[in-house]
Amino acid sequence: MTIDDGYSKEGMEEILTVLEQNNVRATFFIIGNAAKYDLGPELLKRAVEDGDEIGYHSVNHDQEAIKTWTEADWENDYLQWTQMMKDLLGDDLYAKGVKKYARAPGGLFDQAFLAMTKKYSLIPVGWDADAPYWNGGVKPKKGDIFLMHVDTSNVADLEKYIKLTNISPVTMSEMVQASLDSSRQ
């Protein structure tokens, strides 16, 4: 279960409530400026205290600008995002909740982005399904990385996804750990 962006404070509040009510945790790929100007530290702290994770998703999410970014541009953006998260969460919650996952805006996993992720030991994370595919008849299955966005219009889809009987939504860390455990057997 991955949830991107963060431009809607109301959407984030509703999503966190649904996750909490269903005892489900997610990995949020949060945009730095959305966290700072739209969500604020309280909602980020609530997410981490609830057991959710936060991964890198750029400072501005400018899909046009990033098409020409170099590794240094990505690096500067990642370091700025990291500082923003530390400022918003504080050192303890940052260490607890911010994980080494990275999602490029729009899924632009080009060589410069991948070089930056390698340099900082980040795991690039794409996705397999999202609400439009799902609502078009494609059903997520075990092992799929499901993508949603922080928005009030997605709350019904989140509730529907959580209620699927053949899967149990988990964080990226839980999915990675399950994969490691199964490969050791």
Can you put this structure into words, describing what you see?
- The chain is an alpha/beta fold and 185 residues long.
- The chain has one domain (2-183): Alpha-Beta Barrel (TIM Barrel).
- Helices cover 50% and strands 14% of the residues.
- The protein contains 7 helices and 7 strands.
- The chain has helices at residues 9-21, 32-49, 71-97, 111-119, 131-135, 155-162, 172-183; strands at residues 2-5, 27-30, 53-56, 98-102, 123-124, 129-130, 146-149.
- Strands 5-4-3-2-1-7-6 form a 7-stranded parallel β-sheet.
- Strand 1, helix 1 (9-21) and strand 2 (27-30) form a beta-alpha-beta unit.
- Helix 3 (71-97) crosses helix 4 (111-119).
- The model has no long low-confidence stretch (mean pLDDT 92).
Write the layout of secondary structure elements.
Blueprint: E1 2-5, H1 9-21, E2 27-30, H2 32-49, E3 53-56, H3 71-97, E4 98-102, H4 111-119, E5 123-124, E6 129-130, H5 131-135, E7 146-149, H6 155-162, H7 172-183
Parallel strand pairs: 1-2, 1-7, 2-3, 3-4, 4-5, 6-7
Helix pairs in contact: 1-2, 2-3, 3-4
Short description:
This protein is of the alpha/beta class and 185 residues long. Helices cover 50% and strands 14% of the residues.
The average pLDDT value, as a whole number, equals 92
Query: Domains counted in the coordinates: how many?
Result: 1
- Distance N to C terminus: 25 Å
Low-confidence stretches: none
Main sheet overview: 7 strands, parallel
